[in-house]
Amino acid sequence: MRKNITVIVGILIIAGAVFGYIQLKNSSNKNKKPKEGKVLQTVIVEKVKNQDISINITESGRLVAQNKVEVYAEVQGVMEATSTIFKPGARFKKGDVLVKIRNNDFYANLQAQKSVLQNLITSVLPDLKLDYPEAFTKWDEYLRNFSTNKPIGELPPTSSDKEKFFITGKNIYTTYYSTKNMEIVFAKYTIHAPFNGVLTDALVTPGTVIRPGQKLGEYIDPSVYEMEVSVSKSDLIALSIGKQVVVQDNSNGSDKTWKGTIVRINGKVETATQTVKVYIRLIGADLKEGMYMEAKMNGNPIKDAYEVSSSLLIDGANLFIVKDNKLDLVPVTILHKNHGSVVIKGLQDGMNLVSKPISGSYAGMEVTISNGK
């Protein structure tokens, strides 16, 4: 009897345990959350359509006179006063005397040398009349036109080798060229204005002892200027000699503009900056050497190109597109940089270009598309 009771109690305990397990399992299934689906990043794209894009280039530089000379002395002497004072701002016409150096001693030596030449020619006339009568007339005429107060003229040409050797033996040619050289040096005692212009720097005054090689001042033509600007080598494709440029003076809020022309493009790329020097010629009133100006250049259109925001560039030369619902990285070539955007080549028409930056993006990332245009 007691054994039967024990069996019955054991069965009840097992049944209770099974029932409790089933209840616990059902309760657990009810509280379990359903499995979540995969969430994809949504990207904004735009359809690529390559076209001809106009290029605008803005660079700054300083004005330099196109015709500018530094005045140096080639002879020694004391500077003399002239009709126009040698001071910055003084204006001269072409041919006017800029600097005059005292030349009394040298002038006397030159006159003496001319007299020596004149005497030599006079001394050979009798021999020429006897031995070379055909040559006498031209040398006699040369001597009659000879003047120590005028530059010496070219010697008469010889008619034969005998005449030439005779004239050479009398030391006439040597004396002639020595005299001619002294005339050239004498002319350097007076420095004339090479063109209409203005003196911008003066380092000497009348009474100053001037020495050969000494800088005396600077002289410019104030009517024509050049502006040197540095342009990125990638922008050269949009520029050409003869292209018109708008130049503006932005100092003190000024909005005055001048029209310039590109006259030269350097053939050398600066190693450090990867830029090329471009030279713009300017003509106009109110221009002064040293003015800091801004040049706006409308370049030649770039054909079959596309413009995108600079913020979209990956590692400076790649862009994300969406292909088969995945991000793909495409290399591009930058042709021009604007403020905040770049003109590129390398994208094909119809590509889905990612038009907004994506945080944490990578090639192969699955995304969903939202059209931005």
CATH superfamily of the largest domain: Efflux pump adaptor protein, beta barrel domain
Share of helix, binned: 25-40%
SSE-based structural type? alpha+beta
N-to-C SSE string, H for helix and E for strand: HEEEEEEHHHHEEEEEEEEEEEEEEE
Number of self-contained structural domains = 4
Strand content: 35-45%
What is the tally of beta strands? 21
The DSSP helix count reads 5
Radius of gyration: 46 Å
Given as residue ranges, the uncertain stretches (5+ residues, pLDDT < 50) are none
Distance between the termini: 90 Å
* Overall CATH class of the largest domain: Mainly Beta
**Most strands sheet:** 6 strands, antiparallel, barrel
Instruction: Give the overall shape.
Output: rod-shaped
Walk me through what this model shows.
The chain is an alpha+beta fold and 373 residues long. It has four domains: 44-55 and 304-371, conserved putative lor/sdh protein from methanococcus maripaludis s2 fold, CATH 2.40.420.20; 56-65 and 222-298, Efflux pump adaptor protein, beta barrel domain (Elongation Factor Tu (Ef-tu), domain 3), CATH 2.40.30.170; 68-103 and 189-220, RNA polymerase II/Efflux pump adaptor protein, barrel-sandwich hybrid domain (OB fold (Dihydrolipoamide Acetyltransferase, E2P), Beta Barrel); 105-187, no CATH class. It contains five helices and 21 strands. The chain has a six-stranded antiparallel barrel. Strands 17-16-20-1-21 form a five-stranded mixed beta sheet, with no helix packed on it. Strands 3-10-8-5 form a four-stranded antiparallel beta sheet, with no helix packed on it. Helix 2 runs antiparallel to helix 5 (172-187). The model has no long low-confidence stretch (mean pLDDT 87).
